[in-house]
């Protein structure tokens, strides 16, 4: 929602391609296009995380979250919506920094076509497994896909035994982890990894996997083949300009083609210090192609926030959201030993190994093998060792009992009743058997949930309308299989605490800008290019029209790799900076207020000479009057009738509001001028326009007249600017006319609004493109507050208020007083 200040408006950088985000889609795109000779700039909002930089200490972890407004520039970006929580990352390498390394392909039969959805519509994938297989191969090779090599890890053995007894397919999936120092060598923990030919952008040594379970918290040894160690390092090797701490705030098409991107820089010196709205300078860069790869939340938010500048974008924007069926379950108190001895606690050692070592597949009705329902995977979900300590400490009754016993023993020793000085046994008893952590195993389910969620803006913030209800049968199947696995291990199945309120945690959000065969079905085509907006691409999870089912990172990367083939085929040559900027002139939207001509500040109905000027030295300055007005309602884009826009906006919960201060700089001139012109300052709030937009220049006319002597109008004209820099004009009118019934209140408090493209002057309304329309009103409580905001400043404040009041009430009397006037007397 930030509205930051533009810096150096004339200085616009250029590039062939700007990539927003450095996750699986962005990193692949940056590498492929840089390798193809394009000038590529990657804008990543987070900071780099070289080996050894991931937080582990409690003090560091408490600040390891992303919220620059609070001074936090950390790794984890946590979202909370109706029905679900979302966990994504912010850093160079995107989600690869905190994912569990699994590289599984989307099942061939799960590329569904016209699969019906509750409430209408359907899930349709406009590409197939065949379209992606060659690209899956490329990505697996680049990321070093290697099955988990250790078959004797306790949790791995347990998963394979339990799944085998249930007759479910289970295997050790390919992981993007280096277990050996070089390809083809035997796995060995802690060995130095050989550096690839393209080098490493961090310039630090990496070592092979130590099986410490810290994959999801960031690998401090560099064992994970994350995108910064692979694709991004290769992209930089081929000339890509990779910029961290650069957060994109807006973008818009340029008149001659291409796009202008606006971003702010979160300087390291600001970390730990809250950043106020408007505090950060805005930088600009122009490009022929713009690739949105900021993740499902980030890319969809940017599209929604800049929607007004994207004329003709599909109405499918914001649809087909899902969490890829993510569900966390817990197995506790496993028993049965290891199968070789008497029954007892079974050691699962969840903190040993990579986070995920095994995958169990449960069939889908689409498999045509007798399976029913929607298919899914269940995987073991390990964790760092420090969580073992936390979980044991949380077992309060046992911990308290052991602590009291230890204290009593030491007290007896100090009193001389126990001469034994070796206390190893007592310390062991104090720590306890640690059976809770040793016999517990989290499980992660993911699969084909129903992609019927809708993403939108609410008061400028991202909002998601999604619940588990339409996917409840799917989730119950996942829970049932988790419970069955637990029974085979003699363990208790427990839901994660959020499930008690039917909420889930997703680490795989998908959809929001889904691909489709045409604009009525999707936002972009099967190569990620947005319909109707050449050169704009969505190449991340937002483009997927439904769940992958398996871990989606590999599919996102393969999708981006396929799109890059098409881009390079369509435009085989590289471009110079001059060629990039040619045909893309900076226009009025790039001008700062100081660059605009004087007439841009003149209220309608006045000439430049009539604008009130400061009184000369020694002269009496005019008296000004101001008041503040707040109006609220609804609006929609792609309609030109205000009432239709109001109805559609209300249906879609798309609010429009503004709070403005109207100022008549010279009350005497304001009253005497038939146009009654004043200026306006303030802001508008509109979700479909991107949130809060300051009024750059605004004008108000009170009680103007037209050909109907019984009608008056109040006119509003607000020059706004979308987050991407596109100029907008809000024009509104209140119709003051004496119709049958009591209409004084609705006439004076109802504003009919149209939203126009560009900063439009009154004589240009007829030719301006209409972006949308709506209706806003003054509510009674806001009207009462408005009455308290009247201020007169100058030598004659009382007279100013009196003249304004006489004008206002007099005009209302002229319009509505006819009913109260006595009829004229009949002539005698």
Description:
Strand 21 (454-458) and strand 22 (461-465) form a beta hairpin. The chain is of the alpha+beta class. The longest helix is centred in the C-terminal third of the chain and has 20 residues, at 797-816. Strands 1, 2, 3, 13, 14, 15, 16 and 25 form an eight-stranded mixed sheet that branches. The radius of gyration is 32 Å and the shape is elongated. Helix 1 (24-35) packs parallel to helix 12 and helix 3 packs across helix 12 (553-570). It has 18 helices and 35 strands. The chain is 23% helix and 24% strand.
Layout: helices, strands, pairs:
Elements: E1 5-6, E2 13-20, H1 24-35, E3 40-43, H2 58-61, E4 66-67, E5 72-73, E6 76-81, E7 84-89, E8 115-116, E9 122-123, H3 129-143, E10 146-147, H4 154-166, E11 170-171, E12 174-175, H5 231-237, E13 241-243, E14 246-253, E15 259-265, E16 281-292, H6 295-305, E17 327-332, E18 359-362, E19 376-380, H7 385-393, H8 396-414, H9 424-431, H10 435-438, E20 441-447, E21 454-458, E22 461-465, H11 472-488, E23 492-495, E24 504-506, E25 536-538, H12 553-570, H13 577-581, E26 624-637, H14 642-652, E27 655-664, H15 667-672, E28 677-686, E29 691-694, E30 697-704, E31 711-721, E32 727-737, H16 744-749, E33 750-757, E34 770-777, H17 780-787, E35 791-793, H18 797-816
Organism: Streptomyces telluris
EC number: 1.1.3.6, 5.3.3.1
Family: Belongs to the GMC oxidoreductase family.
């Amino acid at each position: 929602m930030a509205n930051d200040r533009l810096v150096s408006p004339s200085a616009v950088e250029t590039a062939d391609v700007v990539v927003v985000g450095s996750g699986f889609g962005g990193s692949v795109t940056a590498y492929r296009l840089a390798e193809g000779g394009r000038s590529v700039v990657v804008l990543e909002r987070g900071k780099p995380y070289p080996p050894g930089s991931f937080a582990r200490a409690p003090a560091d972890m408490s600040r390891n979250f992303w919220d620059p407004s609070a001074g936090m520039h950390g790794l984890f970006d946590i979202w909370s919506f109706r029905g679900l929580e979302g966990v994504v990352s912010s850093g160079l390498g995107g989600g690869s920094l905190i994912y569990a390394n699994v590289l599984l392909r989307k099942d061939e039969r799960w590329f569904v076509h016209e699969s019906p959805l509750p409430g209408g519509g359907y899930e349709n994938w406009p590409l197939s497994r065949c379209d992606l297989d060659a690209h899956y191969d490329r990505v697996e090779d680049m990321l070093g896909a290697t099955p988990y090599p250790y078959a004797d890890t306790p949790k791995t053995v347990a998963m394979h035994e339990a799944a085998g007894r249930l007759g479910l397919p289970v295997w050790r999936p390919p992981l993007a982890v280096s277990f050996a120092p070089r390809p083809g060598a035997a796995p060995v923990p802690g060995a130095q990894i050989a550096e690839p030919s393209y080098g490493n952008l961090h310039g630090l040594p990496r070592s092979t996997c130590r099986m410490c379970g810290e994959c999801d918290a960031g690998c401090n040894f560099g064992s994970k083949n994350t995108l910064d160690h692979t694709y991004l390092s290769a992209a930089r090797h081929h000339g890509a300009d990779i910029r961290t701490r650069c957060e994109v705030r807006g973008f818009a098409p340029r008149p001659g083609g291409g796009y202008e991107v606006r971003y702010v820089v979160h300087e390291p010196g600001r970390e730990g210090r809250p950043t106020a709205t408007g505090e950060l300078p805005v930088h600009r860069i122009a490009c022929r192609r713009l690739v949105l790869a900021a993740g499902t939340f980030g890319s969809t938010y940017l599209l929604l926030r800049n929607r007004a500048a994207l004329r003709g974008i599909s109405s499918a924007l914001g649809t087909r959201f899902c969490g890829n069926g993510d569900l966390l379950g817990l197995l506790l108190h496993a028993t049965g030993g290891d199968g070789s001895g008497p029954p007892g606690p079974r050691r699962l050692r969840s903190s040993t190994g990579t986070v995920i070592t095994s995958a169990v597949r449960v069939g889908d009705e689409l498999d045509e093998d007798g399976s029913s329902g929607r298919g899914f995977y269940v995987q073991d979900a390990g964790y760092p060792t420090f969580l073992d300590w936390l979980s044991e400490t949380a077992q309060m009754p046992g911990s308290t009992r052991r602590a009291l016993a230890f204290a009593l023993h030491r007290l007896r020793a100090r009193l001389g009743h126990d001469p034994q000085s070796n206390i190893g046994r007592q310390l062991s008893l104090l720590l306890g058997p640690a059976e809770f952590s040793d016999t517990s195993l989290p499980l992660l389910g993911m699969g084909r949930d129903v992609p019927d969620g809708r993403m939108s803006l609410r008061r400028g913030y991202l909002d998601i309308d999604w619940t588990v209800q339409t996917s409840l049968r799917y989730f119950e199947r996942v829970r049932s299989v988790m419970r069955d696995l637990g029974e085979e291990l003699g363990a208790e199945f427990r839901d994660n605490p959020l499930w008690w309120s039917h909420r889930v945690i997703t680490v795989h959000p998908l959809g929001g800008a889904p691909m489709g065969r045409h604009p009525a079905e999707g936002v972009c085509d099967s190569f990620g290019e947005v319909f109707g907006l050449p050169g704009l691409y969505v190449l991340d999870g937002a483009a997927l029209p439904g769940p992958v089912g398996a871990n989606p990172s590999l599919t996102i990367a393969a999708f981006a790799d396929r799109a890059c083939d098409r881009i390079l085929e369509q435009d085989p040559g590289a471009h110079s900076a001059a060629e990039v900027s040619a045909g893309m002139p900076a226009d009025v939207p790039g001008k700062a207020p100081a660059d605009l001509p004087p007439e841009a500040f003149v209220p309608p109905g006045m000439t430049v000479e009539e604008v009130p000027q400061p009184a000369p030295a020694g002269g009496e300055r005019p008296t000004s009057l101001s008041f503040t007005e707040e109006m609220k309602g609804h609006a929609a884009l792609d309609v030109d009738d205000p009432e239709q826009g109001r109805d559609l906006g209300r249906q879609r919960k798309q609010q429009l509001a503004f709070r403005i201060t109207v100022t008549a700089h010279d009350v005497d001139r304001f009253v005497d001028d038939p146009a009654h012109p004043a200026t306006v300052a303030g802001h508008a709030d509109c979700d479909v326009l991107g949130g809060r937009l300051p009024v750059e220049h605004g004008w108000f006319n009170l009680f103007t007249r037209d050909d109907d002597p019984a009608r008056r109008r109040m006119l509003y004209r607000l020059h706004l600017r979308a987050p991407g820099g596109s100029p907008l004009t809000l024009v509104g009118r209140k119709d003051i006319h004496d119709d049958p019934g009591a209409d004084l209140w609705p006439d004076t408090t109802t504003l009919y609004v149209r939203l126009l493209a560009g900063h439009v002057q009154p004589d240009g309304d007829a030719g301006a493109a209409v972006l949308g329309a709506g209706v806003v009103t003054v509510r009674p409580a806001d009207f009462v507050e408005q009455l308290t905001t009247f201020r007169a400043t100058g030598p004659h404040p009382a007279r100013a208020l009196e003249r304004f009041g006489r004008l206002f009430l007099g005009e209302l009397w002229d319009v509505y007083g006819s009913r109260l006037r006595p009829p004229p007397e009949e002539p005698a």
